[in-house]
Amino acid sequence: MPRHDHEIPDWTKCTQRVLSGAFGLDPRTIRYWKNCPRNADKTYSFPDVIGWWRAQYEEEMGVEENPKESRALELLREENYRRVKNENDAREGLLLDASDMTRELAEITNVMRQGFEGIEKTHGKRVGRALRRVIDKAEKAWGKMVEGRRA
Questions:
Q1: Structural domain 1-64, CATH architecture
Q2: pLDDT tens-digit readout, 86-144
């Protein structure tokens, strides 16, 4: 298992600590799971544990495979994957802070506006208005993008 938080773990050889972190549980909880699959070296294979956990959950809930529900389950899994990935990326410092990103995009926009003013003086007000519309649309799109990706 990795010794540093920035290393990518081998998900087929997880410790109780890594596995409990992935599930958001206390490591002691993992110890008490009955019949949870383990590797020969007493580590855990995350994909195997997920399969085991799902089977346990479905058995407990009396869930039977229903083709109509499979699309909903797939969408739920995709959403959970995105959420966990974002949480991991944020923890590893891979996501930018939205306020920093907004500030940087505002600086870029100001530089572009200043450049466009020079073009307007050379090529006329019609070109200047067109360039302002372009930068306003870009600024609006960037704002939506930042809002949609807040860390």
A1: Orthogonal Bundle (1.10)
A2: 777 777 776 666 777 778 888 888 888 888 888 888 888 888 888 888 888 888 887 78
Give the percent of the chain with pLDDT over 90.
1
Q: Which two tokens stand for residue 39?
A: 């590797």
The DSSP 8-state label assigned to residue 8 in this structure reads P
CB-based burial of residue 42 (10 Å sphere; 0-12 exposed, 13-18 middle, 19+ buried)? exposed
Which pLDDT score is estimated for 41?
A: 92
The span from the CA of 58 to the CA of 30, in Å, is: 18
String of DSSP letters for 70-131: HHHHHHHHHHHHHHHHHHHHHHTT-SPPHHHHHHHHHHHHHHHHHHHHHHHHHH-HHHHHHH
For 36, the token pair is 């949870």
